[in-house]
Amino acid sequence: MRGFYLQEVHSAPDYRVPHVDAAYHDYWARALAFGYQAPPRDDPDPELRTTPYFRPPGYPFLLAAIYKVAGPDPIGPRVVQMVVGLLNVLLGWVLARQVCGRGAALVTASWLGTYWIFPYFEGELQEPAFSTFFLLGLLHVLWRWQRRQRVGWILAAGIVVGVLALIRPNALLLIPVLWGWLAWIQRSDARLRSRLVGQGLAMGLAATVVIAPVTIRNWVVGHQLVPISANGGINLYIGNNADADGTVRGETPYGVLDTCYDWPGIVKTMEMELGRPVDYQGASREFSRMALDFILAHPDQALRLAVRKTIYYWGPSEPGDNREVSIERKLSPSLRANPWDFGMTLALAICGVMLFVRERRRSGRRTDARSARERRGLANETWQAGMLWLAVALLWWVSYLPFAAGSRYRVPTIPILFLFGGWFAVRFGWMVLSRQARTSAAWGATLLGLIVVCHVNLIQPGSSYARWHYQRAMSYWELGDKEAALQEYQTAASCNPKNPAVQNDLGVALASLGRIDEAIPHFQRALERNRKSPAAHFNLGTAYESKQWYGEAASEYRAALQLDPGHVGARDGLERVRRLSAGVSRSVGTGRAASPS
C-alpha cells in the first residue's frame, strides 16, 4: 500500500514543491543541512537565524538529518517516514500483545498497517509519523515501568515527552497527567507513594534537559524567553475570535497568516499599528490577550466554538488545514481503495472502552480460589495500562480545544483507538464462537448503533476545491509549467473568487504571459479583500508601471512600503517611476515624445 502511494506522490506536482507548513519545514531543513539560501517562490525571509523559532523545531531537525544522510532528493523523507510508519505498526503490535494478548495484537497491527491516513501523512513533509512513533514509544516505556518500577524508565519517559514536545509542544501537558497516573497506581502502597515527588521531578527534569537547548538558543538569538516556539499566541487567536469557525483560518487584524513566512511581516505590522517595539514573544502575548478578551467577552460563542472543534476532532470527516485531506483521498486510487475510516475506528474504540470497564468490574468480583490472586493482578496491570491509554487520548484532544481542528492533529492517538478496538474485536469474536448468543447480540447491536452514530456529520467542514487547485497551480508555476499553472489558477478563482491570494497569483500568471490588461482587475480584487498585502500592492504597481501609469504605480509602491518597509522591489520601483515620470514631464515641457517604458 505504501509503495503504490509513494508512486502516486512521486508523480504529483507538489512532490518537489510542497506548500504551507510542509514548504516551511522543507526550507528550514534544507537550510540546516545544506546552508541558508533565499526563501522559495519569493516568499519573505522567515528570519530563522536571527529570531526565536516560530514553529516547533523538532520535525525540521529530523528532516534535516534525513537530508544530510540521504541527500537533497525529496524521495528520502518519504521513504524514511514510511519506514517509521511500519515501525509504528510493530510498536502497536508489541504493545497490544503485551497488554491485550496475541489476537488483539494481530487485529491492531492489521489496522495500523492498512489505515489510509498513515501512509497519506507519511507522504507529506509533516510530523504525524514521528509524533505517533514517540507517543507509542512513551506508552511502551510506561508499560516497562509498570512491570519493573525502576527510576530509569521514569527518566526515559521524561526524555520521550521532551522530544515529543519539540515536535508538538502540547505534549508537555502529558507530564502532570502521567504524574497523576503514577499516583493513582501507587496509591495503595505507602513505600511507593513516598517516591512520587521524586518521580515527578525526575520526569520533568528529563523533559527540561531535552528542551533546554532550544530555549537557550531562542534567548541567545532574540533575547526572548521562548521555551520552544512563538506560535502559541496566534494559534490561540485563530481558534478564538469573532470570525473563527473551529478550523484553521489565518486572518488577523495585523495581516493574514497564510504561511509561516508571513509571521515576521505580521509582527512588523503589529509594531507599526501599536506604535511600540514588538518582538516575537510580545506578538504572541498580544494575540493571546486578544483571544482571552474574546473568550471573556463572549463565553457563549467560545463555548460553541469548543463544541464545534470537538465535533470536528471526533467526527467522521477529515478537516483540512494545510491540505485538503478528503479531496486527496478521493483522488488517490491507493487511499480510497481502503474503505476503513475514522467513524468505524471510533465506534470500535468506544465499544472496547465499554467492554474494558465491564470486564474490570467482573474481574473485581471474582472469588474462585484457584487463580484469583493471579487473575486480579493481571487485570490490574491491564486496567492500569488501559486507563493510561484513555487518559493520553483524551488529553491530546483537550490540548487542541483552545486552538483549531485539523485532521493531522488527531493522528497520533488513532493507534490508541485501534488498541481498544482490537481488544474488543477479539473479545466479541470469542463471544460469537462460544455461542453466547444474548451477549454477542447485545454487543453487536451496540457496535452497529455506534457505527451509525459515529458516521453522522453534525457539522460538515467542507472541502475547498479552490484551495486544492490553487496549491497545484503554485506547484506548476514553480516547476516552470506556466500554462498548467494558469489553468489551475483560473479554476481556483472560479471556485472561490473572494480569495485574495488566488486573485493576486492569477494576476501574476497573466502578467507574466504579457496579459497586463487582464491581470490588473485580479490585483484590484485581491486588494479589495486584503488591503494589507504588500505583495498585491507591489504587483499592481508593477502592472501600472508597465502601462506607463506612473502616478498610480507610485501610489501602490508607497502602500507596499508602508506595510513592509524592507520591500526592496517596492523601493526600487518607486525610485524608478519617479525618474520615469520626471522624464515624461520634461518631454512634455519641451514638446518631445516620452520614451517608452
TrEMBL record:
Protein origin, superkingdom: Bacteria
Keyword Membrane attributed: yes
Extent of the TPR repeats: 466-499, 500-533, 534-567
Keyword set, alphabetical order: Cell membrane, Glycosyltransferase, Membrane, Repeat, TPR repeat, Transferase, Transmembrane, Transmembrane helix
GO process annotations (BP): lipopolysaccharide biosynthetic process
GO molecular function: pentosyltransferase activity
TM region positions: 79-96, 102-121, 128-145, 151-184, 196-216, 340-357, 378-399, 411-433, 440-459
One Pfam family this sequence matches: TPR_2
Domain Glycosyltransferase RgtA/B/C/D-like: 55-209
Membrane topology: Multi-pass membrane protein
GO cellular component: plasma membrane
Name of the protein described by the UniProt record: Tetratricopeptide repeat protein
Source organism per UniProt: Eiseniibacteriota bacterium
